[in-house]
Amino acid sequence: MTHRGRVEQLYREWGPLLYRRCLRILGDGSEAEDAVQDVFLKFLERLPRHHERGTTLNLLYRMSTNHCLNLLRRRRLTPGGLPEGHEPPCPQAGPAEVAGRRLALAEILDAADETDRLILYLVAHDGLTQEEAAEIVGISRRAVVKRIAKIRRTGPVEGMGR
Amino acid sequence: MATVERSPCREVSDLTIERYIHNVLEPARKAEVEAHMADCRDCTAKLQQAQALGEKFVAEVLPRTLPAPLRTAPETVRPQAPPSWLSWPRLAMGLGMAAACAVAAVAVVSLAERGTPGTRPRTHGAEGANTATELRSDPGEGTQLRGQGVNEKGSDGWRVYGKRGSDVFLVQPDQELRAGDTLRFVPDVSGAAHLMVVSLEAGGRFNVYYPFGGTRSAQLSTPVGEALPGSIELDSSVGSEMLYLLVSGRPFDVQAARAMIASRMTGGGAGPDADSGLRLPAPDFPHSNSDFRVLSLPIRKVAP
Ligand SMILES: [Zn+2]
After folding, report:
1. Which domain covers residue A28, as residue numbers?
2. Which of A41, A101, B207, B295 would bridge B245 by S-S if both were Cys, CB 3.0 to 4.6 A apart?
């Protein structure tokens, strides 16, 4: 297969995941399309020759989530940036209901560290288990637990105990 | 699973939906998800919506957005010409040295320490190896730990496990591996280590296997003897490849990792040492720090 063919095949295979993910987080079609392209280009730069599909899925999930959270942070800095009550377009993904308390997206974006933001978003917003978050972030579950404990000590986030 | 009327069921996460669509769920989990969906309209709708978005992407978005990735394809996907410092003859030398070392039952573990020129890697016999492994191989087999290194202090080492079908085996130096084999990495590293698993292919291609596709080292937090998260599945490419575990007391990035590998390949005057195998020059790059350790394992990818 030609290299162009391989790129197209990868894009066909993983583009839908990136598109869903970016649309979910950004809530805007054209911005999501740009984000898909950006993340996919970054993915091509880093693509190891050998990859196992589950690992690739985790990598793309992480890359797209990080990318979109960074876009949201930037958007927030512009006047009228983050819409009040920003809701993802898919009805299933409401703001996180964490231990009876809604965790606002803004609180997640406030976290200073990119990995902390990612973990917060995955656990508190997406409702992933710590185990799943660890797989996406590419660190051990223990490391996730440690980070959450640290976030808890420094911030008001509750209910990250799953 | 009872669904609350007002808020939609969150039993099946977005991630699970993606894994389901891409068919990478463990069979048991997949069955669980399917059983749940059979009874849950919310989650079924979520799956259908995800599939519909995927179809929309392929039909509408892909044709519009594919040109950009294609434009960059030649630079990013084609195997790159090896940078001058990673030329194949040098790498061949590295592989040769490692192979020579394998004769001595345990392959070389290289320890590069700036400012301590007297430090030399040492080969260990079976007793040294035993401290770093809980291998369940035939103890009569003296070569079982080749390539699974232990450093000077006996504290650092790593094991690479291969899986072919249902067979799990410890990867030996220069072992022939085939497409579809998967590899997992088990560091035997103590302390608050930061690590990265990278590889260099004979063609000069550099891969980051752990953290997969990452640009920065990950802090070790798995218990000793436990595999790093994730695995690598070999594709059908063939040729030699050197796997490296890089360990440092401090975080480092992929540039530092490349520089470290490069310093092994080009180290002026560094030659095979009959006793210890590789002797490394002090690495010379901005991110160097005094406890950068490099453990290596050559493999050979062959056609089935
Ligand atoms: Zn459900």
Report:
1. 1-81
2. B295
The DSSP string of B206-261 is EEEEETTT-SB-EE--SPTTPPPS--EE--S--EEEEEEEEEESS--BHHHHHHHH
Separation of CA B49 and ligand 1 centre (Å):
14
Q: How far is the CA of B38 from the centre of ligand 1 (A)?
A: 9
Tell which wins on pLDDT, B88 or B240.
Answer: B240
- State which residue of chain B sits closest to A32, comparing Cα positions: B61
Q: What is the pLDDT of residues B110-154, one digit of tens each?
A: 323 233 333 333 333 333 332 222 222 233 222 223 334 433 344
**Number of domains observed in the structure of chain B:** 2
**B90 and B162, same domain (yes or no):** yes
pLDDT at res. A39 = 94
Residue among B14, B46, B76, B177 with most chain A CBs within 10 A, to mutate: B14
CATH number at residue A19: 1.10.1740.10
Which residue in chain A is spatially nearest to B64 when comparing CA positions? A33
Residue B223's pLDDT band, with cuts at 50, 70 and 90, is low
The CATH code of the domain that includes A141 is 1.10.10.10
Distance between CA B271 and CA B288 in Å, rounded? 21
Distance CA B53, CA B170 (A): 43
Cβ-based contacts of B210 with chain A (< 8 Å): 138
ipTM of this complex: 0.85
Predicted confidence (pLDDT) per residue in A9-43, tens digit: 899 999 999 999 999 999 888 999 999 999 998 88
Q: Which residue of A has its CA nearest to B195?
A: A139
- Say if A3 falls within a structural domain: yes
How far apart are the CA of A70 and the nearest CA of chain B, in angstroms? 17
Best probe of the A interface among B7, B17, B18, B206, by most A CBs < 10 A, is: B18
| Whether B164 contacts chain A with CB within 8 A | no
Inform me whether the C-beta atom of residue B141 falls under 8 Å from chain A C-beta atoms. no
- Identify whether residues A65 and A105 lie together within a single domain: no
Those of residues 195-224 in B touching chain A at CB distance below 8 A are: 199, 201, 205, 207-215, 218-219, 221-223
**How large is the greatest C-alpha to C-alpha distance in chain B, in angstroms?**
74
In a shared domain, residues B128 and B268: yes
Query: Confidence band (pLDDT; 50, 70, 90) for B275?
Result: very low
Lowest-confidence range among A51-65, B8-22, B164-178?
B164-178
Tokens 């040769």 sit on residue: B96
Task: Show the 3-state SS of B11-74.
Answer: CCCHHHHHHHHCCCCCHHHHHHHHHHHHHCHHHHHHHHHHHHHHHHHHHHHHHHHCHHHHHHHH
Distance CA A16, CA A18 (A): 5
The verdict on a CB contact (< 8 Å) between B205 and A49 is yes
Which of B19, B56, B72 is the closest to A41 by Cβ? B72
